[in-house]
Amino acid sequence: MRRVMAAVAATLMLGSSQALAQGRPLVEIGAGAGLTVATDGSTVTMFSVPGAGILGQPAIYASFFTPGGLVIEPSTALNIVHASGSTATTLGLGTMVGHFFQGTARNSAFVGAVGTLQHLSGGGTNDTNYALGARVGYRWVPPGSGLGIRVQGGYQRWLRYGGASEITLGVELGGILHSSK
């Protein structure tokens, strides 16, 4: 996973050239850092870099933009832990359907509906849980940089096993690819 995150970081640095900052924004690819608090009778607090993804895990996102400010943003998180001869795997898939109030080419507040699926396997467990929620935030687009910097907060309610609540606060950095005019 660290190699994947290093590849994303390298892509962000290469993608920040003036040449990519032309035309309409098409897609933003990035990752973030953040704080996640999950409660279901007891409270678990996680801070991770990269993180603030599905249940605080490192996640990679891709935002697909439309001309009217609509964004469709799938994300994924994968963790594989091997200890004492046993392996546990978690796979998280999420999506946000949101709206940037000032459009996607400039600084803008945004809001979105979030849906998440989390699958755990290993150690005799094979289980899936689902969550629904919302996200709000603000995205800065420094002129000519090809970067998007987001500050955001969100809430999700997990639908199985007593309905745990998840609150996230995060900062994300993404490389923006633009159409050629």
Count up the domains.
Answer: 1
Strand content: over 45%
CATH topology: Porin
The total strand number stands at 9
The portion of residues assigned to helices is: under 10%
Strand order of the largest sheet: 1-3-4-5-6-7-8-9
User: What is the helix tally?
Assistant: 1
Largest sheet data: 8 strands, antiparallel, barrel
Shape: elongated
Polypeptide structure, described:
This protein has an eight-stranded antiparallel β-barrel with strand order 1-3-4-5-6-7-8-9. The chain has 181 residues and is mainly beta. The longest helix has 13 residues, at 2-14. The protein has one helix and nine strands, in the order αβββββββββ. A hairpin with a 6-residue loop joins strand 7 (125-140) and strand 8 (147-158).
Distinctive features:
181 residues, mainly beta, Porin, 8-stranded antiparallel β-barrel, 1 helix, 7% helix, elongated
Write the layout of secondary structure elements.
Layout: H1 2-14, E1 25-39, E2 43-48, E3 60-65, E4 70-83, E5 86-100, E6 108-122, E7 125-140, E8 147-158, E9 165-178
Antiparallel strand pairs: 1-2, 1-3, 1-9, 3-4, 4-5, 5-6, 6-7, 7-8, 8-9
Summarize this structure briefly.
By secondary structure, the protein is mainly beta. Helix content is 7%, strand content 62%. It has a single domain (2-178), classed as Porin (Beta Barrel).
